Each structure stands twice: as structure tokens, then as C-alpha cells.
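seq as requested:
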Amino acid sequence: MSMNSVNVAIAWCLAWGHERQPQFDITVLQQMREALNQNNTKEVPEAVKAIVQQVEEFQSIKDDDDFPQTLDELKEKYSNLWNQTTKIGLVYGGATKVKNYVFESAKIQEIRGASGLLDRINQIDLKAFFNDDYQPEYNPNLYKAQCIDIRTWLNENFHEDFKLSEVLIPELIIYSTGGNILAFCPAAYVHDLADAIEKRYTHETLTANSCAVGDTFRLLEIRFGLLKENIEDTPWLEWYHKNYQKPIIQAYFGYPKDEKERLEVFTIRKSFNEITTKLAVLFNKRRSGNDIPGRKTTRRYPPMLETHPYLVRDGEENRSAILQVDKLARETYFSEPSVRKYLFGDRAKDGDPKEPQWYLDSQLQWRRGIVESWVNRFNEFLDENPTYKTKYYAGVKPRDVKTAQTLTHVSNASKGFLGYIYADGNNMGGYIQKIRRPEKHKEFSRDIDLATRYAVYQALAENLHPHILKHLNDEESELENGDLIHPFEIITIGGDDIFIVVPANKTLEISQMIAERFEEILLDKIKLVEIQPQIKEEKRISGNYKLKFDKPFKPNEIHRYQPSKAAPSECKLSTSIGVLITAFNTPIYYAEDLIEQLLKTAKDRAKKLKKVGYHGGTIDFITLKSVTMIASTVKDFRAEALTVNTSPTLKLYAAPYTIHELGGLIKSIAALKKAKFPKSQLYQIRSLLERGKHTAILNYRYFRVRLKQGKSELKNDFEKAWCTPKNENNGGNLAPWMYDDGSLEDDKSGYPLFETIWRDMIDIYEFVEEVENEVSENLPAEVES
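C-alpha cells:
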């Protein structure tokens, strides 16, 4: 019987045993691993055949049909596994308080470096612990030497009884994405591995927070959840049926309606899901500073860096400076944590592992290693997909295009304005709670990582082109006017999180496409790789994320824009996005705070819409022309400045939007542009909104009938599309208002009300470009010809 990687990992842990010394010679374990990975073309060593047979029995357990109704049935069905006593270690850990570390500095280079350094630790360093060397397709040996150095460090710090790298194999990793790692390991080395994860983060970053915990479990527990030491004492289905109405039991298992649902929630909880929940509890306990039973070390907090009132500070993090550099664009003082961020974010020699001479002269011993930028990964995607490559480069030679070094360069493609896009997945927690096997956890993590990255790559390739820098006045930059750049900045893509910066004039289109493609990729509607798909199995979606519809689709309860043309959401998972459009000189820490609030309101909208059968994405945005525009929170600003408390209440905005609605908003702006609606009148109608519903309606209709062209487009793409009454028999026209009866709200106070997209349209009017001018403005003259 062939084994997947998870069962190879389980066999390795069982064969190692519960002591620090393996119960068989290490060469026997290696031969067993090789045989299991060769699909039985090689013989499993005789000494471990009994263990392999146990794992084969474990692997044969199905999900639903074989769930035992009683403990006696469990014992009878799996007597070999019932008596198995060797435990298997499981470790969970990763970075914590990530935003505090990444956005500690206001400089984009250090923000980029901080995010990249955490990403490197999670994606490369921790995997190297398990002898799983990162191998980019365009250069498989790029990280080989670096991974050897990482294992050397690991073995120098963790070598009691056995070098830790010799204890670990690649198959032990369940996932290592999104800043976290979940992995099996031999039981005796659980705490060693957890300590190594924490120490690696501190060793490389000095100041980033991290936490890792581990515990040991019996083989049956990996499939049937936590069991008592004496398995017969474990509460099982009969106990649950008697006690399911008790509040403490409901808090743990949920609120089933009938016996069928009780069986379902019990079987979902009593699975690998219950083990990961226990680790999450331990993780939060250790992160809060509490001791973990059996763990010798206390949590490795970042070091307190010595300071003094008369010492020079680094200027960003207010730590004592250890380095003064006058060979950059301006004289700079670095503390040790800040110089590491700067070096990792340096793109002067993209991908070059050698540090600049001024750093080598400092005698500091830390080395940044290879810096593989997101632009390199984006280009790798383009090489795999020639259609996207042709569309993105549009005749420009890829070697002529440079990486943007500052946000000023990105904003140069949109008259000095940027779009911050911050995305996070919806329904992830609920989906994960129903995953019952470790191999499904592995597949899910891989699928989400693929969908997130490729959704971003496709959106960038579809909507952007290399940009020629113009009117640049940046003394700190090595780039000059006339240089071609990639007009985007990827700060992070990890797990289901996205944080990118793009030109303001393409922000909404990119946001919409990211949300759409994320779902389409998970539904396997889009091929991720165009060339050689037969050898790209690792880039194919493995799970089934299609929704099963048990209720009729009612688009009128979900979408405000042309409900009849909206398709039902098909994917179990989606993404919500916060978007901030602002000037390039807006402090990034301020932008990050606002965009996080926008993401939260978008997710709140998604939760409300889920009640009426919508599982798709939502997007909230706001546009700033100056930093001081919002002095409080977005929620307070909208409540105080954009809500008129008359009877009925008037909302002068309509955000957040569904994906379908955002597409309609962009189309409505295009209708305004085509109608050549005078700008002065656009702003006048906006100013009259707060004077009352009837005043705004009269003024809108007055200006609309005076238009010389575009009346039909405006009527179809704005009035009929957005502003038709809820009652289909009502022939009236509410434009520019929409009616909201508050059906999605738990709190009905203030409802019904009227809202409008007019202010939102005016705010982004200048950031929606006409398609026909998009390419020619950004490409060299020789390409146009």
C-alpha cells in the first residue's frame, strides 16, 4: 500500500519511539522512509514491518462510515491501534504581533524588509529544520548553501542525544505558510522543536515576537480526537446525547437541532480538529506568559536593548544606534534590529546575498542571506503563463523593467496617488473546524496559499503594465526619469492574507479581480499554469470548495446593483478586502490603521450577507486627499460626517460592496464619464445630498435632463441599475437614492433609511481610467508604434 506524506511522518514517529534515542538504528528508519516513499518498490525493513502495518490500518479508516458509535465498537474495530502506546509529537508555532514588528518603522524599505524576513523564516528557515530545502523552479540550487547553514545553526543549538536536524524529515511538516507551522515530530523532541522555532525568530529578528508549543498524542487520537489515559473513561456519543443541552457542552460542541446534527457535530469535533484546538489553547496560554507543563524554558521574549538618555537613537524605533552610515542618500543611524530590516528590504542588488560594503565594514556578524523579491516570483508566474506575460509586458523587454524602490515610484503611475489593498479570507475558521484529518489540513493550507498568490499575480498582470517614470524628483532614489518599473509593491502574501500597494487608478479593478480569482481558483475554474501542466501537480487545487445549495438564491436580498444579473456565490470560501486610496506621502502607519478598519467593516458586511445565502467577497474603500481628513475611526467618521439623522435617515455612502456591486460601481462611473456629466454639477449634486432626499432627487433629475449625450447610459447603468424601488410594482424613481429596510441588521433602530453611491462615485471618479488610454500612456513610443 502506498502512503501519503502524513502517514510516512506518522510511521517515522512511531518507529523512532518515545525516547530521545531511536528504538531502531537510524539507518533502519531511513530505509523505511525511502521504501514508503517509493510506493513499495523497495522492501520495508523487517524490524519496522509491524509499525508500518499499524499505520496502514490507520490509513484505511474512512471519514464518516467508520465512526464508531460506542467505545466498545472502537475497541473492536481497531484493537491494534487501541493497544498502541507510543505517542506522536505535534508542534504548532509562528510569529505573533506581526504588525507591531512590520510597521514599527515608517520607511517602506524597512517595512518591506521586516515582512520579508518573517516570510523567509517561515518559508525557508523552519522548513530547512526538516531537511526540506526551498527550491524555486528557475534556480533549484539557489538556497542550498543557505539551508545547510540553517541546519548547522540548529544542530549547534539543539544537539542533546541527537542533532535535531537528524530527527526531522520533510514529511513531518503539515503546513508552513501564513506565518505559522504545524508539524509532527518524535515525542521526545516536541519541546526541543518548539524552542528551536522560537529561538530562530529571535536570533534572526531580535525584536519580533514568536511562540511555539507542542504535545504528544496516541495514534487513535489523530483520527478520533482526545482520549482519556484510560480510553474506557472517555465521554462518547451516549454521554453526549444525554448532556448536549448543558451550556458548557454546547459551548464546546455547538448547538445542534436534532439527533442527526448531534452526530455530525460530535464526529467533526472528535477528530484531528480537537488536537489542533488543544494546541491553539496551549499557544495562547504560552503567548500570555504562562508556563507549559513539561516545558523547561520560559517564553523567549525579545531582548531588552540597552539605552541611555544621551545616546543617539536610530530615528525610527528609538533604540540606541550602533551604526552611522553616510554612504546612503542621507546620513542614517541604525540600531541592530533596524539595520537587519533595511538590509533585507534593500533592492539595490535584488537577490544578491552579499551585503553592502558599509555593513561588512561594521564587523557585525549577522548575514541576510538571499533576498528573493516578490517581483522575481511574479516573473516566474509570467514565465509559466505566456498569455499573462504578453499582456503585462505588451512588447517591453522584461530585462529593461526595474523594481520600484519607493512608494513614490508606484504613485508615479497615478499622478502621486496610491492604493493600499489589504485582504483576508472569509469563512476560514468555520471550514478549518470541519477538517478531520491532518492530510486534509495539508491540502487546505496548500490550496489557500496557491489561490491567494495566484489571484494577486493574475490581477496585477491583467490590470498593470510596466510604467515609465516621469517628473520624478526623488534625491534618495537610484532610479531616474525614463526608467521602466513594475508599478506595484507586494508587502506580504501569506496564507489568506494580502497586503499590496498599487497605483490609485487601478486599485478598485485589482481588488475586484483578486476577490473574483480567489474563488475561481479554489473552484478549479482557472488553470494556474499554462505550460507543461502535466508536471505541475503541486500547482493544482486538491480540495472541493463548491457550495451545496440548500436554499433558493434570492439576489434581491443580497445585491443592490442589478440583482437579476448577479450569479449565486459558488465557493465555500471568499475574501474581504479593505482599500485605501491616498497620496503617496501619507504615513504608512496611518494608512495601515485605516485600511485595517476598512477590512473589518468589509468582513462585517460579509457576515451579515451570509445569513441570506451570500458566501462571496466584500470590499470597503475610502479615498483621502489629505492625511487630516479622518481624525477618528472610519466608523465614527461615517456616522458623524456622512449620516444625516433626519426622518428617514440618510446615508451619504453605500460601502461596503459585494464583488458584483463593485463591478457595477465601476461601470456606473464609466457611464458618468461617457455622459460627460459636468464636474461642477457632479460635485453640486454631492453637496445637495445632505439637504434631504427630495432636494437631491429634484436636482439630480434637473441636471440629468439637461445632458446633451449619455442620457441612456446614465439611466441604464445608474438609475435602473441601482435606484429602482424594492417594490417591483412601484414605477417611481429614487435616483440618486437606494432604499434599505434593515433586513440584514440585528439592531433595527435607524431603519428604514436611504443610502446613495453618488459620493462614493465622485470620490473615486478620477481614479477610474478609460480603458482605451490605459496602455499607450505607460509604454515607450517605440512599443506603441
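The chain has 31 helices and 19 strands.
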